[in-house]
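Protein Record: Sequence and Backbone Structure Tokens
======================================================
Tokens: labelled as protein backbone structure tokens, with as many entries as the chain has residues.
Task: work out the structure tokens from the sequence, keeping to the layout shown below.
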Amino acid sequence: MFYHYHQNNSGGSFDIDDNVHIDVIIEADNTKVANRKAEEIGIYFGGEGDCECCGDRWSAQYNDESGDTVPTIYGEPVETACSYNGMRWADDDIKAYVYYADGRKEVVKY
């Protein structure tokens, strides 16, 4: 299953690097494994240090059934989905990073 993590614009900015972007999709057997992989690449949960008014930057996945059989952004296949970055919050043409269970990473662009 593929689990979608969307970065909240906490404090008016995004944290983007070679591992995380505004939208990150992780293939895993369940949410526990997906959350662990998310933490390994730099996604954090609990919001310590995030903006009080904007909320936590990242949220963990808790429902195994929330995953999709293909990489998606809010249930829409990543290739055709409208990403938050479609509003060009980031200065690049990246829509999402997709991490596959076999270790591959795909950068999906507009």
Observations:
- The CA atoms of residues 30 and 64 lie 5 Å apart.
- Residues 2-109 form one domain.
